[in-house]
Amino acid sequence: MNSTNNEGPVLVVGATGVLGMEICRQLREENKQVRALVRITSDPAKVDALKQSGVETVTGDMKDPSSLGNAFRNVSSVISTATSTISRQEGDSIESVDEAGQINVVQAATDAGVQHFVFISFSEMPGIFPLQNAKRKVEKKLMESGMDYTILRPTMFMEIWLGPALGFDFNNSKATIYGEGNNKSCWIALKDVASFAVASLKYPAAINTIMDLGGPEALSPFEVVKIFEQETGQPFNLQHVPIEAIYNQKESATDSLTKSFASLMLGYAQGSLIDMKTTLEVFPIRLTTVKDYAKRVMAPQTQQGAY
After folding, report:
1. Do 75 and 109 touch, CB atoms closer than 8 A?
2. What CATH number did the domain enclosing 83 receive?
3. Is 106 helix (H, G, I), strand (E, B) or coil?
4. pLDDT single digits (tens) 203-238
5. Residue ranges with strand state E in 40-173
6. Domain ranges, residue 243
7. How far apart are CA 84 and CA 255, in angstroms?
C-alpha cells in the first residue's frame, strides 16, 4: 500500500508517554524519520532512549504556542497522543494540555503546512465531563483545519484499566471492579493503538476518518479476572466499587481530573463494545487478546516486550 505522504519527518507529540514511545518505536522500525516534541522537564532517561533509537528530539511545550515553531518545521505528518491524565507536571491540566495545548498543536501544524494529522482521542463515554469535552473540541478544530486528519478513538486500554494503577493488581491477585462487573468491553492494548496510528500514515482509507478502536473480544471484568486466575493459578480477591459511589464521586468532584476519572469509571461499568470487523478488513493488524496481555505481564521481567 502506498504511503499517503513521503516527505519530511513524522512529529510525535506526547513522545515520552508509554503510547508515544511505542509509536516512535514502530515508526523507527519502519525506518521513518521521526521527530519528538519534548519538554525541558521531560524525563532525561526517556529522552535519551528516544535519541538512542534514532529519534530527533526538539524542545517545546504545547502549552506555549511560541515554543512550537522549530518542532513543526518541514514536518509532513503529526501523531499527537499527549494528555495530562496519566503523567502530569506543574501547570498541566485537562484544560491546559488536553484542550488548549492540543488546539495549539493543531494550529501550529496548520500554520506549518502539515499534510496529515493523527489525533489519539477516545471512544464515546456516557455523560458530560471535562476530558471528553476537551477531546471533542480538539477533534472539531482538527476537522476544520483543512489538513488531512485521522481521529482514533480507542476504548479501554488494557495497560491502564487492567493494571495496578487502577486497582487491577495482578501480581498480588487483587482486582477492583467498578460497578457490577458484568458488562463487556473490547479491551485494547496500547501496542495495537500505536499500530493503528502508524498504519494511518500508510493507508489512504485513514484519511479524514474517525475510527473507533477496540480489541478482538468483548469481555466483562469478571471474565477478565477468570483469565488472569487461569494464568496465575491463584484466585483473585475482588473489591467492588458500587455504581452509586462512582456517581457520588463525579458529583462531588471539585476538579476536572477527578470528575473525568469518575466518568471514565462509569464508562467502564457500562461497558464498551466496538465492532472491529470492517476496520480490520482495511487495516490488517493482529489484535492483542486479554490472554496475550495476561501472559506478557505475568512473565518474568526479562521476557516482557519492548513497550
Report:
1. yes
2. 3.40.50.720
3. helix
4. 999 999 999 999 999 999 999 999 999 999 999 999
5. 56-59, 77-80, 116-120, 148-154, 168-169
6. 10-298
7. 13
